[in-house]
Design brief:
This protein has 300 residues and is of the alpha/beta class. It folds into 3 domains: 5-60, Winged helix-like DNA-binding domain superfamily/Winged helix DNA-binding domain (Arc Repressor Mutant, subunit A), CATH 1.10.10; 64-160 and 265-292, Periplasmic binding protein-like II (D-Maltodextrin-Binding Protein, domain 2, 3-Layer(aba) Sandwich), CATH 3.40.190; 163-264, Periplasmic binding protein-like II (D-Maltodextrin-Binding Protein, domain 2, 3-Layer(aba) Sandwich), CATH 3.40.190.10. The protein has helices at residues 5-17, 20-27, 31-45, 60-83, 99-103, 106-116, 131-136, 170-176, 183-186, 200-209, 224-232, 246-250, 277-289; strands spanning 50-51, 57-58, 91-97, 119-125, 142-145, 154-168, 191-193, 218-220, 238-241, 255-256, 263-272. Strands 3, 4, 5, 6, 9, 10 and 11 form a 7-stranded mixed sheet that branches. A two-stranded antiparallel sheet has the order 1-2. It has a two-stranded parallel sheet with strand order 7-8. The N and C termini lie far apart (48 Å).
């Protein structure tokens, strides 16, 4: 059978926007028309594709269809560029990565590669433990994740490790931890996390002090620089990539609260096994370039 492009366009718009109404606005159609096209596609495939929730989300079959459509679009664009002899056509890369990657090593390590390969980026920023799900649902064709195992049809290549340190401003330490990082003091000292999904500091406090999440106050400040800024200016303490800390530690702007207990997070590049030649080449260059800045993964 052949997939109807109008039906697949409606399906992708529903998942992208989260509702039939928003999909209709995006495609300049009515909600009943969008619903009719999605139902026709579901009937043709013999499976439900959309969970009608708020927001709408794909079923397991819907996820597989999204994955196929994303890869098919990429392969078609690459083929058309070759057939038209447009060797300078840009390669669009839809990828998911965590804020620390974007705010530290991503551009220093990969800018030269991205420029040379004429890449146009469409990036989604998500917690490193959750980027994997965006690839799984077909909303990205590549992702940087902490998950070492590839899902079906994908590869997972090690990039190296990011080292994190638990830091605070000097004034914050004097106010909240005058006797060091203790369980009783940590119950009252505010943490600075990125989002509600961020588990770096909470995992550390659970492991080192036995404090569960929710046992202490917490700010949520997304973005590598704003997050570090909140810590540097004394709003709280938290895990910060060592790549951001050299000058701040040397100048005394922040102090390491657990110098003997750094946290190393191994990162992996996930992408599809079947991809365009240009995307395959780009993936190889990402895997080669990242370790020049990131540390080697810690031995198990």
């Amino acid at each position: 059978m052949n997939l109807d492009p109008k039906q697949t366009e409606a399906f992708r718009a529903v998942i992208k926007t989260g509702s039939f109404e928003q999909a209709a606005l995006r495609l300049h159609l009515t909600p009943p028309a969008i619903s009719q096209r999605v139902r026709a596609l579901e009937s043709a495939l013999g499976n439900a594709l959309v969970v009608r929730s708020r927001p709408c989300r794909p079923t397991e079959t819907g996820q597989r269809l999204l994955q196929y459509l994303k890869r098919a679009t990429l392969l078609e664009a690459d083929l058309m560029a070759d057939l038209a002899e447009r060797s300078d056509a840009p390669l669009v890369v839809v990828a998911a990565l965590n804020a620390d990657t974007l705010g530290t090593w991503f551009f220093p390590a990969l800018a030269e590669v991205l420029i040379r390969e004429r890449v146009l980026l469409d990036l989604t920023v998500e917690d490193q433990d959750h980027t994997y799900s965006l690839l799984e649902t077909g909303l990205a064709i590549g992702c940087i994740s902490t998950e070492p195992r590839p899902m079906r049809g994908c590869t997972a290549s090690p990039l190296g490790s990011m080292r994190y340190r638990l830091v605070a401003s000097s004034g914050f330490r004097l106010q909240h931890f005058p006797n060091g990082l203790t369980r009783s003091a940590a119950r009252k000292a505010p943490v600075v996390a990125y989002t509600h999904k961020d588990s770096l500091t909470s995992s550390f406090l659970l492991r080192q002090l036995g404090l569960p999440e929710g046992a202490y106050p917490c700010h949520f400040v997304p973005g590598a620089e704003p997050h570090f800024g909140a810590i540097r200016y004394g709003l709280g303490y938290g895990m910060v990539p060592e790549l951001l800390l050299d000058d701040a530690l040397a100048q005394g702007a922040v102090v390491d609260l657990a110098a003997d207990s750094p946290l190393d997070i191994s990162l992996y590049w996930h992408t599809w096994k079947v991809q365009s030649p240009r995307m395959e080449n780009l993936s190889r260059q990402i895997v080669e370039a990242a370790p020049k800045i990131l540390a080697r993964p810690a031995a198990p």
